[in-house]
Design brief:
The chain is mainly alpha-helical. The chain has a domain of 75 residues. The protein is built from 5 helices and 3 strands, in the order ααααβββα. The termini are far apart.
């Protein structure tokens, strides 16, 4: 029996010491910041959707949400995604497939995060709405 809670991953002693002395890895903090910005944009779109539904403007919802998403200032989000895609493989010490030169994450090819376009933000908002 162990005092540690059950989990589906292991943290080496070296990683524990690093976390205690240095803090959260830069890639984890950056990814969290990206997720927070996306969540904020999506919440705004969901709120706009609810307002349009309350007004009975069902026909123009899609166009209105897309226009709203295009109006967002996504520069900071774009910079964070670009930095994440550039530095994550190095910061996370991903291995490289010798045959292809691709980075590997968990034995599979690592793919850079796609940019957050207005269309992707609206799709994410629609997904959040479908889960309600």
């Amino acid at each position: 029996m162990s005092a540690d809670p059950p989990r589906n991953f292991l943290i080496s002693t070296e990683e524990r010491i690093r976390a205690l002395t240095i803090g959260v890895p830069a890639y984890a903090a950056r990814k969290r910041h990206i997720e927070d910005l996306v969540d904020r944009f999506v919440a705004t779109l969901v709120e706009a959707h609810d307002v349009l539904v309350a007004k009975g403007a069902l026909v123009e919802i899609e166009a209105a949400l897309l226009a709203r998403a295009r109006a967002f200032d996504r520069k900071k989000l774009d910079r964070l995604v670009d930095a994440h895609n550039r530095y994550y493989p190095i910061e996370a010490n991903l291995s490289i497939d010798r045959a292809t030169g691709d980075y590997l994450l968990g034995g599979r090819r690592w793919l850079p995060e796609a940019p957050w376009t207005p269309e992707r933000l609206v799709a994410s908002a629609q997904s959040a709405l479908a889960k309600r």
